[in-house]
Amino acid sequence: MNDLPKNLKYAASHEWVQLEDDNVVRVGITDFAQEQLGDLVYIDLPQLGRKVSAGEQCAVVESVKTASDLYSPVAGEIIAINEAVADEPEQVNEQPYQTWLFCIKADHLTDLDALLDADAYQQSIN
User: Fold this and answer.
1) Deepest in the core among 75, 84, 95, 108, taking most CB within 10 A?
2) Domain containing 96: what range?
3) DSSP assignment, residue 45?
4) What is the pLDDT of residues 62-99, one digit of tens each?
């Protein structure tokens, strides 16, 4: 797994983050996470409008092996959820870096400073 997208930030809890315009961050799970989980069968996405803190549990992914909590990488408000992935969670297994789960309007972009770059994340999972 040497093909981590360099344009993303990574949480130690295996979420990836892509900064969009207007303080919006798009969130998904890493290839490492989906590989460890196995075939995903269900994703419980956060409610639109929910306020979350950085590091707060806000979603759950379930696989044939186990369930795993997802954590908000930044503080802010959930402004979008990927309904298609709720219906077809296997999209995450097939294309983890193209399949986002939810978007947060970040309160402070400084929360991104606590996240890892691709090289640091790679080292953390080796």
Assistant:
1) 75
2) 9-115
3) P
4) 999 899 999 999 999 999 999 999 999 999 999 999 99
Radius of gyration of the chain (CA): 13
Whole-number average pLDDT of the chain = 95
CATH assignment of the domain containing 18:
2.40.50.100
pLDDT (mean) for 4-17: 97
Domain count, the chain: 1
Are 58 and 70 a contacting pair, CB within 8 Å? yes
pLDDT in the model for residue 55: 96
Contact 37, 30 (CB under 8 A): no
Residue 55 burial (CB < 10 Å; 0-12/13-18/19+)?
middle
Using DSSP's 3-state secondary structure scheme, residue 5 falls into coil
Percent of residues, the chain, with pLDDT higher than 70: 98
